[in-house]
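Hello, quick one for you while I still have it in my head. A protein chain has come my way and I'm curious about its shape. I'm sending you its amino acid sequence along with the C-alpha cells. I'd be grateful if you could look everything over and explain what you see. Here's the protein in full, and shout if anything looks odd to you:
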Amino acid sequence: MSAYRIDEAAIARYQRDGFIAPLRVMDEAAMADQLTQLDALGAMRAGRIAPSHNVKAHLLAPFLWDMVHHPAILDPVEQLLGPDLLCWAAGFFDKRPRTPQHVTWHQDATYWGLSRPEALTAWIAFTPSVAANGCMRVSPGSHHALLRHVDTRDNDVMLPGRERIVETVDEEAAVDILLQPGEMSLHDVRLVHGSRANASDQRRCGFAIRYIPADMSSIGLTRATATLVRGRDHGHFDLEQAPEAAFHPAALARYTGIVRNWMRNTLPKMGDPS
C-alpha cells in the first residue's frame, strides 16, 4: 500500500464536505527548491510568469511537469476520481504582499467546459498559506449543486471571468485552508471557495492542478487537450507532451496553439451553471 494513500475517514470527509486538507506532498526543504525554480522561471520572463503562460504551466517547465505527476498528489486523487487520470490545467495563484488581488466566492465547474462536474483541484502550497496572507477559504458541503455566477467586473479578481456566485455565503461557517510549504488541499470542482487579498508582508503562492477522470470529455467548440498522468487514455482528448526544457522554443510553439484552443473551449458563460 502506498504511503501517500488516504484513509477511509478522509475519503468520507471529502465526500461530505467537498475538501480535505492538509495532505503532505513533500517536505519544506524540497518545496523551497521548487520555489527557487519557480522564481528562476519568472526571472526568464520579465520577473513573473505571464497570465498567458499560467493556464497549463506544466507544459512549459519540466519541474512542473514532474509535479503534476507526483505520486503524493496522484495517489489520493486516484482514490477520489478513479485509476485513469488527466491533468486538464495547472497554474499559480501568487499573491504578493500588500496587494489587492483576491478570489471571489465561486465554483470551478462554471467554466471548465467538461461533460460532467466530476473533477477536483489539488492546491499545493509553495509558501505558507494562512489567513493573514489570503489563504483559500471554503464553504463546507456546498459541492452538491451547480450555482449561477455573474461577472463582478472587478479586475482585482484572480479568475478568468472575474466571476462570483449570486448566492450569499455564510462567512461565519467558512473554513480557512491553512497550509505550510509542501502541503496541499484537495477540493471538488463544485465546492464554493475563494480567498481574501494578501494584507500581510508575506507572499502567498500556490499551484492549482486540475485533475479529471480520463473517461470524461470536453463539451467545448473544439477538441481539447490534456495530460495523461496515470492509467489509461480513453481517447477523448489530444494528449499533451512534456517540455524539452524551461520555455523551450518547441514547447512554446505547441503551447500557443494549446492555450488558444483552451480559451475557445472554456470562456465563462455567466448566468449559466451548466
